[in-house]
Amino acid sequence: MIHHWLLRFLLVCAIFALLGAAGSIQPASAAQKIAISFAGVNPRQTPLWIAQEQGLFAKHGVEADVVFIRTGPIQVAAVSSGATQVAYSGPASILGASSAGTDLRMIASFTNKLTYTMVARPEIKKAEELRGKRFGVQAIGGSVWMGAVLGLEHLGLEQRRDNISILNIGDQTVLVQAMESGTIDATALDGVFSRRLKQKGFTVLAELAETRIPYVSNVIVGTRGFFQQQPEAAENLLKGLVESLAFILAPANKAVVVGTIMKRLKIADAVVAEQGYRDLVQIIDQKPYVSLDGIKNIQRLMKIQNPVIGTVKVEDLIDNRPLRKLEDSGFLQRTYAAYGINK
């Protein structure tokens, strides 16, 4: 956990980094200004990017300023202070902040199962050969770490018992480089990144998307106060994101979505980006309710390092009412139908 003084320092850095982007919440009669942060650089961020690039937030009355903040704890600190109104963040940071008393609510999640690929160096052929080896992750407590631990469980391994060293290396582009250089022996990657290693003869130990392990990658989160005071903002934000899902799923928009993935992930190879697009289409939940089982799985892992997180009532962190209202009104059905998507 980040100490309070460090959290305040990081928050100040985040606020300066935003360069005034957040602004104040506007009256209901005007377009609602919402600063939304994201921290990941992977295809799962695509719904947010598409909603921004295609003007879908604006279409539904939201003036969205989408900003990159490097880590989840700073994202949550920015939301808690009002520097940003919403974060597209991993649940680990949310559970950590909630255990310290921050009143947050999650209102949507677009992927509710584990989707990483477990990849090892070419000389490692079987899962049991990971014993005593180095496993790279982005950060202890982060999404890749969660995927790694759950993936190891699936393979019948346990970090301490099997003497597996889990190392903080960097984001997934850095993890790929570390695998190629031999700095680490294994890692967990999204398909768009693991495919490059597969092509070079690295060993795939497990495709975790096939396991259907309950998990939540990213959620839309804000403070309870913000969602209570600005219920229309939450609904309109979700309208833009649901339409973004429909846009992504519509085959006619494939080239646009692939182009966004190439640009955002700095991928020059269109074939690799297209595989990332295919992976994304397969994992999107058209009804993006937050999975309680997925959040509980994350809590189970986190409380090993921080027992206080085990006291958080995760049911209280999930607010599916804004999305339920949209579904009951027929908005989801109409939106997908307009893009030719059969739900």
List keywords for this structure.
single chain; 343 residues; alpha/beta; five-stranded mixed beta sheet; 15 helices; disordered N terminus
Protein architecture, described:
With 343 residues, the chain is α/β, with parallel strands linked by helices. Helix content is 46%, strand content 15%. It has 15 helices and ten strands. It has helices at 4-18, 46-53, 56-59, 72-81, 91-99, 143-154, 172-181, 191-199, 224-229, 231-249, 254-265, 270-283, 292-305, 321-328, 331-338; strands spanning 32-38, 62-68, 86-89, 104-109, 117-120, 134-137, 165-168, 186-189, 203-207, 219-223. The strands form two sheets. The protein has a five-stranded mixed sheet, with helices on both faces. Strands 7-6-8-5-9 form a five-stranded mixed sheet. Residues 1-9 and 14-29 have low confidence and may be disordered.
